[in-house]
Structures are given as C-alpha cells and as structure tokens.
Amino acid sequence: MFVRNCWYVAGWDYDLPPGKVIARKIIGEPLALYRRQDGGVVAIEDRCCHRHAPLHLGEIEGDCIRCMYHGMKFDPSGRCVEVPGQDRVPPRAAVRSYPTVERDNWIWVWMGDAARADPELIPFSIGPGDPDWDMRPNSLLFNADYRLVIDNLLDFSHLTYVHRKTFGGDIFAYTKPEITRLERGMRIERWVRNVPALNFTQHIMQGRYDMHLDYSVLMPCVFVMRFKVFTAGTAVEGPSDGELLLDTWTCQSVVPVNAEQCVYYFSWGAPKAAGQETSNLLAKGIYQAFLEDKEMIEGQYANIKANPDARMIGIAHDAAVNQMRILMEHAIAAEKTGIAAE
C-alpha cells in the first residue's frame, strides 16, 4: 500500500536540532535521525544489528552514533566501525542508511532504492524560511490510513460540510474543478465567484469575493496550493477581473507511519509584506480545519476497519480521487515487478 521510490517528509528542520537524535517511522520502517558535524542529516535504520536495540536512544559521537545498549558505533553510511571489547568488526555489522535532503525547511528521506534517489523528484514547496513568505508550520497525527487523507485533499466538496464552521460555502459542493493528470499526480484548479469570505475570516472580510484555488497533489503525498482572494468581479469564466486582496501558499505532506497512522505536516502563509496578523489568522484557521478533518477521517477509518468489505458508492466528486488511487496502485505494482515507479 506504499510507494517506496519516493521522497517522504520526516519532519520540519526545527524538529532536529544539532546534538539530538529523533525517532521516526515511515511506511512501517523505523528510522533514527541526527545531524553530522557539518549540519547534514543522517537517517539510519532505528535498529542495532546486534540485539535490535533502538538507535534513537544512542549518543552522537562526531559524525557517528553509538548504540547505548552494548556500545556498537555506526558511521553515517550505517557501517559499524567499533565493537567494544573486540578488535574485529564483523563484516556484516551494519544498518541501513537512507538518502536525505533538507529543502524548504522539510527533511526529506528516500525510502526506496538508494540508487534511484533523485533530488529533482522532490516537489516544489515554500517553507517557513522563505525570505518573502510568512509560512506558519505545524503537524498533526491522524489515526487513519494515509490514503483517506489524500482522498480528502483531492475533493474539496467536503469544505461545504466538514468545514462548515471554518471554511464553509455551498459553492464548493456545487461546482466542479478542472482536473489535469500529471506524471506523478494531479493538478486541480477551481474558481468560485461572488461568494462570502471563508467563515473564519468573515469578522474582517464582510463583502463578496472571487477565489482561486490552484493546487497539485503529487506522489506519494505532497499537496501544494496557491490560494488567492479578489474583490468580486464581473468575469464569469477565466481569471477574475476583481482586485487581488490576498495571495497565499499552503504546503502540506501526508506521511504514512504505517497502515493505520499518518503524520500530517502543513503550513499556510501570506507574503511578509501583508503583516504578521494575516498569517496568524491563516495558521489558526487551517489548524482548526484540520482538526475537523481529523475527526471525520478517523471516524471514517474506524467504520472501514469494522466492515472492510462494505461497498462504497461513487459520485461525481470522486474523479480526482479515483485517478490518484489508480496512479498510486500502478506505481506500487511497478515496484513489485522491479520497474522504477517514475
């Protein structure tokens, strides 16, 4: 149920300060992460090859990490370089090491064949360190199959109902977006016109507006959207002819811990020139909205687990959901047969 030859987010850069070892589990595989002396990120299997003790409980020594159960020391490649009490290191004494890249304030780990780890496959995003954008990062743990969260991102008709208190607006359920198939995912574009502001902003935005939502969802689970708000114009198709009032980016990644849990990393922000209050409002709104998603999706997953053979009825809004599911199933099948999922 997982694509392996992909980059997965293992956390925000601030999750891993120098001198600290953290534990992560991605697609069911336990990882220990720490920084070398030059600041680069090391990701290795969180399981000592001796007695399978967790290496995230180890201590950093230079660029190496020492298992604090019996003292074996491993270098960043995962090779054991010291066994206390003996001169000879067994040739097979090693743990798996994973390629890493730090970009846009995310720590990316390649979970598949290391020879295929191409940094060019890392999706575009804007991080909180960007000089022009005031991005506010956060994360949530969902007790659900990660694919259900991706489904949710591909079908914004749920904004009308799940997010009736935060986003709201009947228009989301009664309009269809433009869907474009990409090599590694989907692009979805939607205009909504002459509508009230999102519910969580209506205390400061009380008129009528045009909104543009343009986003991509790329394998395995990265969502990037540019969201713009204009004064209500007269155009009924194509770009709004109203005045641009708000320009924002939101960057999100859904990372499967295992078959039943996932971590949702997300940020939303406006240009720094718009002032901190704008991004503060966006950060508060998106966090509350994702708590609404969490409640609904975890309930959905509980029902699926209780009766996994129950039939689901398809509707028109499932178009992008179904296409993405097929794309991921093909990638997983290709990997199983030894073909690159690229």
TrEMBL record:
Gene Ontology annotations of biological process type: methylation
Domain of life: Bacteria
UniProt KW Transferase keyword: yes
Classification via Pfam families: Rieske, VanA_C
InterPro entries in UniProt: Cholesterol_7-desaturase, Rieske_2Fe-2S, Rieske_2Fe-2S_sf, VanA_C_cat
Record keyword Iron-sulfur present: yes
Keywords, alphabetical: 2Fe-2S, Iron, Iron-sulfur, Metal-binding, Methyltransferase, Oxidoreductase, Transferase
Gene3D superfamilies according to UniProt: Naphthalene 1,2-dioxygenase Alpha Subunit, Chain A, domain 1, Rieske [2Fe-2S] iron-sulphur domain
Location of the Rieske domain: 7-109
MF annotations from Gene Ontology: 2 iron, 2 sulfur cluster binding; metal ion binding; methyltransferase activity; oxidoreductase activity
Protein name: Vanillate O-demethylase oxygenase
Organism per entry: Zavarzinia compransoris
